Amino acid sequence: MNTHLHTALDLAAAGVPTLPLRAGKLPFGNCTRCADNACGGRPTMKSAGACECPSVCHGWAAATTDTATLTSPPWAEAWWQAQAVAYNPAGARLTVVDLDDTDAITWARHNLPTTRIVPTTRGEHWIYLGAMRSANAVRPGVDIKSSMAYARWLGPGTGTMTALPDAVRALTVKEPSTVPPALHPVGVSVPARSRQCRHRTPAYLDRGITMAEQRITKATSAVHSTVYGTFLAVLSAHGRCGCLTDAHVGRLFAAAQAKGEGPRHCNDAWTNALTRLGL
Fold this sequence. Notes:
The chain is α+β, with helices and mostly antiparallel strands. It folds into three domains: 3-87, no CATH class; 91-172, no CATH class; 198-277, Transferase, Pyrimidine Nucleoside Phosphorylase, Chain A, domain 3, CATH 1.20.970. It is built from nine helices and ten strands. It has helices spanning 3-13, 67-71, 75-81, 102-111, 166-169, 202-217, 223-238, 246-258, 263-277, and strands spanning 18-22, 26-27, 84-87, 94-99, 116-119, 124-129, 135-139, 142-145, 151-152, 162-163. Strand 7 and strand 8 (142-145) form a beta hairpin.
């Protein structure tokens, strides 16, 4: 039997919903039927939050404990292509504190109660009993993986699991959103025949901001670079005509902070994008 499938079946028997990962620690692509979460990712009786589609889709929501699903096409084929096994922590009522480097580990040892620890490539996973919402970059080198997220299965680890502490829950409490000062138009004239900047057309500008929000929201890795790249793209399209308002920028910041970016990180990314474009 395929090693990854064997691991998945063992986890499923223990009540841990699993899914296969391809190269790059990424889930297999969404199916056409459910692209962009069109079905809403409705929960079913046999999964942690998957839709009713039989194929491998929805990333974390495809995780399942149903052995028939795990061993039948197209799942069976996916396991032979898989590079790793992942699981949905919240589906097993768990929370993973992902510590990415030695500084993060040192911080955890001084601030969090001891629990089961699983070594990772660069750091450690601290696993607690209890589920909560997930968030990236809650502090330098620290991600929270629980609901609507997946973590790689790297073995059972060592130590006794501790109940999810308030100190971990507090990490996802957001600081009040901050919005940078309104952009000032730079010297780009608007043709007299237009009478107004084309970006002020509600549908045009709102569609651009909505697409930028979606790009940030869908990021499953490299959140910092995704936020910066999105800010850069928005400013490239709309930054030279003065059409962006505090409300537009606030929407972008809110989307970034919902993915775990702090106000300071948002401001830094915005400032760096402005500098890059000479605005």
